[in-house]
User: Fold this.
Amino acid sequence: MDKQINKITTSDWNSFYKISSIATILIMLFFLFDIIVWIALGPYPSSSEGWFSLLQENKIVGLALLSFPTLFGMILYYLTFLSLYNILKQVNIAYATFAAILAFVGLSILLVTSMAYPMVYLNDQYMLATTGARRISLITAGETKISTALIGLNMGGFFVEGSAVIFSLLMLKSKVFGKKTAYLGTLGHGLDFIRIIMILAFVPQNIVAILLMIGGLPQFIWLVIVGIKFFHLGQGKSITSQIVQ
Assistant:
């Protein structure tokens, strides 16, 4: 049987849900843009010298491949996860809190280790360098940043995708989102979570890429549905939080 708890749509959260709705849809668009850029303009340079050359030859392409839109998407993701926490804490506050902490830690790792701004800065310094020694030091700094960004991408992604899986599982007990949304999130984010574990275990990239291709679409659909749900909540509609027994 279903047990109604209480309405989660309050005047204090209405405007925040509206903002979160827009943010969540933008996140999906940023991620989609990133994939299109990689297909159309990739692959990414494999060295700091390659990035410097690309940024000097075509800065727009270089900035696109550095995933600046996705970087802004990571910032917006804080809003999505905070709204999910406020809704799903009524299902299980312990797991919702744990998922929110994982998300915030993961997003912070992704933002701090991103090589987008550092690589642009190092490229500008490289162009101004007047000695070979200075150029070599900047190339070395760029290689260090690339390796740090790779570690951050995997570790941050591990926490973020793990958080999304937990929130998706909590949706199974909430009538706000429904089981279809829960299954989509569990499938899409679950496959990405497994993919990251496989990367950390040094599984060949051609095998790992399959999981990314399969799990990508469910994640996009999940983000759209979550964004729409946030919008409905922001409108103050009579959507109540219910736990499915």
Remarks:
- The chain is about 80% helix and 5% strand.
